[in-house]
Amino acid sequence: MKNLTIVIILFTLFSFKPSYNHKISDPKIAEALAFCRKKDMDTTICIMVDMSIHSGKNRIFVYDFKKKQITVEGLCAHGVGGGSTATKPFFSNAIGGNCTSLGKYKVKGRSYSNWGINIHYKMHGLEKTNSNAFKRIVVLHSYTPVPNQEIYPQTLFGQSAGCPVLADEVMRKIDAFLKTKKKPVLLWIYV
Length: 191
Description:
Layout: H1 2-15, H2 26-38, E1 45-50, E2 60-64, E3 69-74, E4 103-112, E5 119-125, E6 139-142, E7 165-166, H3 168-178, E8 185-190
Parallel strand pairs: 1-8, 6-7
Antiparallel strand pairs: 1-2, 2-3, 4-5, 4-8, 5-6
């Protein structure tokens, strides 16, 4: 009986820890850090969104440059426009297109949101592929129905109007990092 209790306790302890199974390539991390240094952005963390990953799997990651590891991960919705489906996003920078835009963003400016935990962060596109983000009101925010854990092989039931949309719990963790930063943080959406 004691052995069974120990097994149950160990299972419980390890089953609730984040998996952080995803690996961001070293060249991508090196490029992100070099970009942050060049643009005088925060060099402690960056937010990476890998849109090549299925929407039912974690695809937003907070990477800690000093610890050299992912510290937060979660599901992330993509835009509904341009013929996007739950399994295949279409990317565009067009105003009114409701698509996710690829590229590097400066995240700065914490404000009230009508969705999720009622907090959003302004996103400023820094490349041709996302230069209209601020005009399009593309912001980082949560939405309560987004699950806190992977649901693969299911897909996210909803998509966004182009914003990276997260689970409330993931947004709380990211907000804890972002609200302490003096410099803008890099958010990079890529495939």
